[in-house]
Amino acid sequence: MRAVEDALSRLGGVATRAELLHVVTPRELRAAVLAGTVLRPRRGRYVAPGAEHARRVAHELSGVVSHRSAALAHGWKVKTAPELPELTVPRGRKLTQGARQAAVIRTGVLTRQERADGVTAPLATVLACARALPFDEALSVADSALRSGTVRPRDLAARAAEVAGPGRPRVLRVLRHASGKAANPFESVLRALSLDVPGLDLQPQARIEVADGVIVVPDLVDRPRRIVIEADSHEFHTKRSQLVADCWRYAELGLAGWRVLRFSWEQAMFEQDWVRWVMTRLVDPGARPPGHGAIWLAPNGRTPQVPAAAVG
Fold it and tell me: 27: how many CB neighbours lie within 10 A of its CB?
């Protein structure tokens, strides 16, 4: 059952049956649902139990589900599901210490409809995440909202002119770069990291013509610099046929003059400084590493792990 929970987490906290069956068996999925470690709110759709738990806690505290918990409630994928429910309560509401330990609680103005539904409205959820969360987390939510069709690009553009108060630059940055073309949070995170690299302009899901007029659609493309960056998702690379197709695509892209980088999910999530540094060197090979050390260290204090098979 743990395999199902891990797969659901990597897929953004919500997933279809088809997505999950890339990496787990039908028996494992059924067992996880029966045990309650994964919920099936409707046929073919699966979510982590935290989404339903957030609604219960919000009801007990007379608040509403908000931020990443609201994103999950809307059926959107997130970079990381919150360990505690994320809630918003009306300003001035007094909370016990126990209540504060049961959830991540913020205060705000809630509409009558939000109080009735128990969850912040879609557009309000995107804006709240953009104001409160790290950029890669917030961009993942905004991309998911656009991808779902619940929030439209013109909704974000219209609201951008009204954004004010603390966190305004963060909110505007998310609204400016959000894209419904992003396939998943993994890809959103890589694009968020690339936006810190001067001279790099990656666009999601761009079409490229290679040998014999065949069209391929890499995850991220900087067309002027002929750079391709792929989010190498384990859940879509478990079959031999997929490996063969990937090898063909990367070979043809290379022959067509494209430079291709592939990053694993673990690297995008946990070695972000190293990923930025690799992207920086791709754009500017003469760039000096951050800091004064002669060797680049990953955020965990070690050089990024290189599988033995890659150097043997």
Answer: 8
